[in-house]
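Long-time lurker, first post.

We've been arguing in lab meeting about whether NAP would sit comfortably in this protein at all. Half the group thinks yes, half thinks no, and nobody has a model to point at. So I'm putting the question to the forum: if I give you the sequence and the SMILES, can you give me back a predicted structure of the complex? Inputs are below. Any interpretation is welcome too.
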Amino acid sequence: MEQSDEIVLVGYGNMGFALLEGWVARAGIPANLINVVEPAETLRRRAATAGAQVYADASGLPQTLRPRAVIVAVKPQIVGAMLGAYRRFAGTAVFVSIAAGVPISTFEATLGDSAIVRAMPNMPASIGMGVIAAFANSYTSETQANYVTDLLAAVGNIHWLAEERLVDAATAISGSGPAYIFHFIESLEDAGVAVGLPAETAHALAKQTVNGAAALASGSSFSPAELRQQVTSPNGTTAAALEILMAEPGLADLVKRAAAAAHRRALELAATG
Ligand SMILES: NC(=O)c1ccc[n+]([C@@H]2O[C@H](COP(=O)([O-])OP(=O)(O)OC[C@H]3O[C@@H](n4cnc5c(N)ncnc54)[C@H](OP(=O)(O)O)[C@@H]3O)[C@@H](O)[C@H]2O)c1
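Top reply:
Settle the argument with this. Predicted structure of the protein with NAP, as tokens:
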């Protein structure tokens, strides 16, 4: 039996939902080629409404199924126990795991010499604006890596990493990063209230400032440092604020320490996972 263009998506929680939506809406993948395995009935119903084939567990998947990819989108602590049920796809399908902190060795222990990609997406994937850091093991062919690039591009920009250990480093930056930015918005909002703005206005100004600045930085040919200099006139208001933010130790040091803590935790989780 030849391999088909079918996909098995294991787990239809937040990320599974974002992936399926991206594949159908942005990658043009017909929903009926997607086989969702999800124990929760309400989530299964949601996947069926989107047009996918749904199964409560792996035993329901058709015996004739030869998917091109098996996407593992369950909680990290579930991965070890669920993998055995998908062993029959090892060697033909590429396995793509988005489970945080689960090393490729966990997959190889069950699936053997199989193509496995470990990917770390982030929360904006839910609106197609994620960033995904990924590492492929040596059994992944170029064709399979290109296919995975297309699949993950439906929810964001993919960056291939040369070493698996860099997935933990990416987790500390892009994986956890959205929370840092959310906290920055909260902080800017609080600062707005402290200088006298009504809370609602402070909230709107803070949110749109981060939104506009991020869009400007990502679309500009200038570096963030150049953009910062362009809006900072000598002895002006921005310069007064940056003197505080860029003092030593300033924001850069704080962010570095925060990311280092996230990195340490990612390594701990990977070691105990
Ligand atoms: N959310 C993010 O921003 C984000 C970012 C990067 C990476 N990730 C990774 O993505 C993975 C999924 O995260 P999530 O936020 O989507 O979690 P989630 O919402 O909890 O989704 C996981 C889903 O898998 C289902 N499930 C449990 N056991 C299963 C099994 N044996 N077979 C099939 N499905 C099963 C769960 O059902 P029950 O609830 O009934 O158990 C749940 O609906 C995690 O490993 C996480 O580390 C998430």
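For your lab meeting: The mean pLDDT is 95. Residues 27 and 154 are 6 Å apart (CA to CA). Whichever side wins, do check it experimentally.
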